Amino acid sequence: xxxxxxxxxxxxxxxxxxxxxxxxxxxxxxxxxxxxxxxxxxxxxxxxxxxxxxxxxxxxxxxxxxxxxxxxxxxxxxxxxxxxxxxxxxxxxxxxxxxxxxxxxxxxxxxxxxxxxxxxxxxxxxxxxxx
Length: 131
Known about the structure:
mainly alpha; 4 helices
């Protein structure tokens, strides 16, 4: 619409201002009225373009906010799962000199430590509204 209406402003200006032999004095008010209508339509098109741009920007901001919430949730869950993964990685190396392997409470102590760290992370992330 804008590409169709914008050139009409200049055409209406030229028709209204220049004297042509075929143009009578009775048609001058009509040409002025056509020019005014073209200006109104051009302004309405500009206003609609601005509103459409604002709507697209608001949609993008809402989408970015939703994506940010999803990234927070995934990051917090990954941090909680990183603790057991790291402990399992250390125990999976099969070292010979690990004092907790010879201790009868080594496995339960390791599990309690893992649960305590994961629980603390869960509590902190829940309190920060990331979960």
